[in-house]
Specification:
alpha/beta; 237 residues; 3-stranded antiparallel β-sheet; Bifunctional pantoate ligase/cytidylate kinase
Length: 237
């Protein structure tokens, strides 16, 4: 095998995937691919164009006109930073995190043409390997050949609390815990029950439950698993 290893990190919203994936990539000298940011960027574009996110034909027509670009090195002073994202060269890093985009992204991400297009871009990105990718279908669809697959989980209550802290830090309105929990359950439900590439644990994925773990502990577990995996296959490339 000639390409460098790939780490796939899947799991539900708020499990800690992007935070952990960025730090793992940084520590191991790999690139980071935030596939959720790609679905968010496309959803932002759909809304910006005034297109109905529930209309798969109209959304599919937009696809050739939406070029998504993201940065792959996103840790500064050991602090994970979100990937910077552009749609047709417009910076949308903050805009793709809005409540409007969050509310519609699972609807857009359920559409066949959307997944075909974005999965293709993700696979191209990973052609040479050396990537940590996080999302919902990385281990099952995007990189089924990934050397290490992690399924990150946390309880709904824990994820709602994390979300509250994130919103506080962003100085955005902070809904009640139960409201956040319900939004999380709803997105879990949509992501797990859709027909194409639903969120599910790959057979060969290792589940890491993060409820009682710090970010650092999760990162250490994953880098240790990676080192074992690479050692077992005899060298990093
Ligand atoms: O960070 P958060 O958990 O809020 O979500 P995200 O990773 O940014 O993903 C946003 C949405 O994109 C998810 O709720 C899924 O509907 C969709 N998504 C997907 O379908 N497949 C992926 N590989 C990544 C995200
Ligand atoms: O990408 P995903 O939606 O899975 O989660 P995230 O945005 O990386 O993490 C959600 C929040 O949980 C962030 O504020 C993380 O700092 C926090 N987190 C945590 O408190 N403990 C962990 N073990 C992992 C993440």
């Amino acid at each position: 095998r000639s390409r460098a290893p790939i780490i796939a990190i899947d799991g539900p919203a708020g499990a800690g995937k992007s935070t952990v994936a960025r730090l793992v990539a940084h520590q191991l000298g790999l690139l980071y691919l935030d596939t959720g940011a790609m679905y968010r960027a496309l959803t932002w574009y759909v809304l910006e164009q005034g297109t109905d996110p529930q209309d798969p034909v109209a959304v599919a027509e937009l696809l050739p006109h939406c070029q998504i670009r993201l940065t792959a090195q996103v840790v500064q002073d050991d602090q994970p930073q979100p990937s910077e994202v552009w749609v047709n060269d417009r910076p949308v890093t903050q805009a793709i995190r809005s409540a409007e985009v969050t509310a519609q992204v699972s609807t857009v991400a359920a559409q066949a043409a959307v997944r075909q297009r974005l999965v293709q871009q993700q696979q191209q990105y990973g052609q040479q390997g050396g990537v940590v990718a996080d999302g919902r279908d990385i281990g099952t669809q995007v990189f089924p050949q990934a050397e290490l697959k992690i399924f990150l989980t946390a309880s709904v209550a824990e994820r709602a609390q994390r979300r509250q802290r994130d919103l506080q830090a962003l100085e955005q309105p902070v809904p009640e815990l139960e409201v956040l929990a319900e939004t999380i359950r709803e997105r879990d439900r949509k992501d797990s029950t859709r027909a194409i590439s639903p969120l599910r644990q790959a057979k060969d994925a290792i589940e890491v439950s993060t409820d009682a773990l710090t970010i650092e502990q999760v990162v250490d577990q994953i880098t240790a698993l990676y080192r074992q995996t690479v050692a077992n296959r005899g060298g990093p490339s």
